[in-house]
């Protein structure tokens, strides 16, 4: 690291020029990269995906989309009875006027399930092609326009559905750029407090270059594989927080070395050898957590693993080259006005660390109790999708849905099960599957749009929406019966996708967890030259993540907070892909703080301090830094939560809460109390293990403790 610092300082003008070129190229590539991102949640090789592909190939819609429900409500005093032909023409106008859709209604199925109990509202199910891009608009307006043009005079037309409810009356929320600016504004305020000088602008500059460098690296990746649209939000906002955190750590250490009397050149080299070393290991840890997603048999999650791993790579590269290059040139001049000094540890954090060390058992019990309560809540988690009640609270889609619900129509119509069957046996298939417990209606349309190439799509309406791991049992029952029913080609739908996801993805989760834990453990053994500290770090991370899942259950699934903060009632479940995303990002990001803190504690111990003294000095030096870094990341996730879509809000709030929980309860209570309790055991790395990992062995030195810090035992 010292040699690298010398190289950067010798060629600092070329380094700055290089990153300026990357900044320009990244700015050009960012827009083009966003245009190439995909919206694809398929699971290749899974039965539901195969059935979906067959349905789409045959009728060009449905399969992997939930339908829109189009309602026609007669004016007061009139009923559907007596106006069946007019209503049928209104729904047929959708079939004729909107391309590539499939319409099911009472006219082409002969089923009175398509009207409400009061006989005033009729509805049709409209299946449409899956949108290919994130910016693609739903066909809501063309469908509404077609029906209104042919509806009976005075009738009210409504359009609802899971996708339509997800949009609600929201205009779409801020875009990626706006969210990034929101996060950057909050970060700037924190940086001004931390540095109290013009240096506050340097981490933001590093973050800007890092984000655009990530987009530049991501652009060619979009030609090699499909990359999910979610990546652009993560690159902008997670990249903002990570790059600022790394630069904040480096610059703070540089100021500390300067305040200790080192010349600017020496201070940069010293910062690289200490903080730079921690940044490098932190970046690798974050990348490991994300790259572990590639073991999952899900293309969109693999792409998030590839794309997400570029975030710490770019952040580390820019922080360890551009930051020392700037500091080595104009650092002292930019550090103006120099109000805050780093010559001594933070008095407040030093007092806090001394208090925790002195009462380490009480601190351990308190932190364990907080985490334990959240872990208990995790036991009630339901994996699935957000319920219709939580997707929107106002707007025409909600009004249309309430009209159907009040008329006795089951919300299971929002999540039908589609069964591709042999055309000659479609009626028998419908009769057989319609008898499955939990199925409200089995529909076979005579419309031309429901059949092709000797195949027909049979639509089953469950008696409740199939949106989570508890409510998809009816889907499993249908699949079991379908496997034994002649003429069935495949079963698709939202519930089927969830069943496949739970089987394929969560079935591979232990493998993903094992890979991350082992690689992280080996990496941290090299970083800390200890066996116990890395083991503790991995275990605490897993405990912390489980507690975050518990918070997600309370806040979103049960609604203790989502309604008050976002106006969204309980979702009833946690979206099936969110826990994996939270795990992949939080495992690495929270480990950042572990590396920051323990690297400094290890440094202080190696200088001859006792374990307790090293803990106090290490926390005193890093407490304010870690808290500020966590706050910056939290603000970035808060900006992400301002975006459209309940799923992104769930993920963003989980990441934000996880960062705060980790920086406070885990790193400020558990870590110092446990390191103090373990004492000499923290610092042991046997010679044979050290030789295997090509690092110096570590043996505890004789400790001299102050009376005030003497162990209670």
TrEMBL record:
Keyword Transmembrane appears in the UniProt entry: yes
Pfam families, A to Z: MMPL
Topology in membrane: Multi-pass membrane protein
Location of this chain's protein in the cell: Cell membrane
Span of domain SSD: 195-329
UniProt main location, coarse: membrane
Alphabetically ordered keywords of this record: Cell membrane, Membrane, Transmembrane, Transmembrane helix
Domain of life: Bacteria
Keyword Nucleotide-binding part of the UniProt annotation: no
Regions that span the bilayer: 176-195, 202-223, 229-254, 275-298, 304-330, 361-381, 504-525, 537-556, 576-601, 622-642, 654-678
Protein name per UniProt: SSD domain-containing protein
Organism: Nocardioides koreensis
């Amino acid at each position: 690291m010292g040699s690298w610092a010398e190289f950067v300082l010798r060629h600092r003008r070329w380094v700055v020029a290089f990153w300026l070129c990357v900044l320009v190229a990244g700015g050009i590539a960012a827009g083009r990269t966003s245009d190439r991102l995909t919206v694809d949640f398929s699971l290749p090789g899974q039965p539901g995906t195969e059935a979906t592909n067959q349905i789409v190939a045959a009728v060009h819609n449905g399969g992997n989309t939930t339908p829109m429900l189009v309602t026609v409500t007669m004016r007061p005093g009139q009923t559907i009875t007596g106006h069946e032909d007019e209503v049928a023409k209104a729904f047929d106008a959708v079939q004729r006027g909107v391309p590539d859709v499939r319409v099911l209604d009472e006219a082409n199925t002969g089923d009175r399930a398509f009207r409400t109990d009061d006989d005033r509202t009729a509805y049709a199910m409209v299946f449409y092609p899956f949108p290919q891009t994130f910016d693609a608009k739903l066909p809501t307006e063309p469908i509404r326009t077609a029906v209104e043009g042919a509806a009976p005079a005075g009738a009210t037309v409504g359009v609802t559905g899971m996708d339509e409810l997800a949009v609600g009356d929201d205009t779409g929320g801020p875009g990626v750029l706006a969210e990034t600016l929101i996060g950057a504004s909050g970060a700037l305020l924190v940086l001004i407090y931390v540095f109290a000088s013009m240096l506050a602008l340097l981490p933001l500059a590093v973050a800007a270059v890092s984000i655009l460098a990530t987009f530049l690296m991501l652009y060619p990746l979009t030609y090699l594989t499909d990359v999910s649209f979610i990546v652009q939000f993560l690159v902008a906002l997670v990249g903002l927080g990570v790059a600022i955190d790394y630069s904040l750590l480096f610059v703070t250490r540089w100021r500390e070395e300067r305040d200790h009397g080192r010349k600017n050149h020496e201070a940069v080299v010293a910062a690289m050898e200490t903080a730079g070393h921690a940044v490098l290991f932190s970046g690798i840890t974050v990348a490991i957590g994300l790259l572990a997603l590639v073991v999952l048999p899900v293309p969109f999650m693999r792409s998030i693993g590839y794309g997400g791993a570029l975030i710490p790579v770019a952040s580390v590269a820019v922080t360890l080259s551009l930051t020392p290059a700037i500091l080595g040139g104009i650092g002292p001049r930019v550090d103006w006005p120099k109000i805050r000094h780093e010559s001594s540890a933070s008095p407040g954090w030093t007092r806090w660390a001394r208090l925790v060390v002195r009462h380490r058992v009480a601190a351990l019990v308190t932190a364990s109790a907080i985490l334990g309560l959240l872990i208990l809540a995790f036991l009630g988690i339901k994996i699935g999708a957000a319920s219709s009640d939580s997707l929107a609270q106002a707007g025409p889609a909600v009004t249309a849905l309430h009209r159907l619900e009040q008329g006795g129509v089951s919300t299971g119509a929002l999540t039908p099960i589609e069964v591709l069957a042999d055309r000659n046996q479609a009626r028998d298939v419908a009769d057989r599957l319609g008898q499955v417990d939990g199925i409200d209606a089995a529909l076979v349309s005579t419309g031309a749009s429901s059949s092709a190439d000797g195949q027909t799509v049979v639509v089953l309406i469950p008696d409740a929406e199939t949106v989570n791991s508890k409510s998809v049992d009816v889907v499993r029952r249908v699949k079991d019966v379908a496997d034994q029913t002649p003429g069935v080609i495949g079963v698709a739908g939202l519930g089927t996708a969830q069943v496949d996801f739970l089987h394929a993805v969560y079935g591979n989760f232990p493998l993903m967890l094992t890979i991350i834990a082992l690689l992280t453990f080996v990496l941290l053994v090299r970083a800390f030259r200890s066996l116990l500290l890395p083991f503790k770090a991995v275990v605490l991370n897993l405990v912390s993540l489980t507690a975050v899942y518990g918070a997600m259950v309370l806040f979103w699934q049960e609604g203790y907070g989502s309604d008050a903060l976002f106006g969204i009632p309980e979702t009833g479940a946690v979206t099936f892909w969110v826990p994996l995303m939270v795990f992949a990002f939080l495992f690495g990001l929270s480990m950042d703080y572990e590396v920051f803190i323990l690297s400094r504690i290890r440094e202080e111990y190696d200088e001859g301090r006792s374990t307790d003294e090293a803990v106090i000095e290490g926390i005193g030096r890093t407490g304010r830094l870690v808290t500020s870094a966590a706050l910056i990341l939290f603000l970035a996730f808060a900006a992400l939560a301002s975006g459209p879509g309940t799923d992104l809000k769930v993920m963003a709030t989980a990441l934000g809460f996880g960062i705060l929980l980790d920086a406070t309860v885990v790193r400020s209570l558990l870590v110092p109390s446990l390191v103090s309790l373990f004492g000499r055991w923290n610092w042991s790395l046997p010679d044979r293990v050290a030789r295997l990992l090509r690092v110096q062995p570590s043996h505890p030195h004789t400790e001299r403790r102050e009376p005030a810090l003497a162990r209670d035992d």
